[in-house]
């Protein structure tokens, strides 16, 4: 981790993102509390973020048999520090095809999606849960208090969300064929 004082990435913490021991991108996050006319997080234009998961190279089934998936690098660091376990960040609100393959190759069969509790995060969690479930993984969705993201949540809020995570049931598409079926 580094920092930049001048240029495009001035007043930002720089976090390199490695996957399979290759640098894929970096995240540049401002440390200014009320940054005006600037994005909170920047990545380089030639970024390979869609092929990367922050934290991927340090996760291990020996720590826990669960893998937490969050959006940002600081979310991942906060989850690892607060509740322990394995955590990766998708560097955005959605899992890409390449990232789903990395999750499948990771060796974890129990996935907990811990997305931001805003509309985009909730919609992404539902879509990703179905996609990961189709890959024969056990998937649960953890819900934080309204408007919170994993980096803002207290350790007790994270623990409560994880302990109350809802397991995703198999989706065979029958809802679209037979109206009213919810549990099968």
From TrEMBL:
Xref: InterPro entries: DnaG_primase, TOPRIM_DnaG_bac, TOPRIM_dom
Signal peptide start and end residues: none
SMART domains, per the entry: TOPRIM
Cellular component annotations (GO), alphabetically ordered: cytoplasm
UniProt source species: marine sediment metagenome
Gene Ontology process terms (BP): DNA replication, synthesis of primer
Gene3D superfamilies: 3.40.1360.10
Protein name: Toprim domain-containing protein
Domain Toprim span(s) in chain numbering: 65-137
SUPFAM superfamilies: DNA primase core
């Amino acid at each position: 981790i580094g920092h930049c004082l001048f240029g495009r990435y001035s007043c930002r913490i720089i976090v390199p993102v490695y996957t399979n021991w290759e640098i894929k991108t970096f995240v540049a996050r401002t440390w200014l509390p009320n940054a005006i006319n600037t994005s909170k997080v920047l990545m380089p234009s030639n970024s390979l973020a869609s092929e990367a998961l922050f934290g991927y190279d340090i996760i291990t089934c020996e720590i826990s048999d669960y893998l937490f998936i969050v959006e940002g690098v600081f979310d991942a660091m906060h989850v690892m520090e607060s509740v322990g376990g394995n955590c990766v960040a998708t560097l955005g609100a959605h899992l890409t095809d390449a990232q789903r393959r990395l999750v499948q190759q990771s060796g974890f069969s129990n996935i907990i999606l811990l997305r931001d509790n805003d509309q985009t995060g909730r919609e992404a969690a539902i879509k990703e849960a179905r996609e990961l479930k189709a890959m024969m993984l056990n998937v649960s969705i953890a819900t934080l208090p309204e408007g919170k993201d994993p980096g803002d949540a207290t350790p007790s809020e994270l623990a409560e969300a994880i302990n109350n995570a809802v397991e995703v049931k198999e989706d065979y598409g029958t809802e679209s064929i037979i109206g009213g079926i919810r549990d099968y």
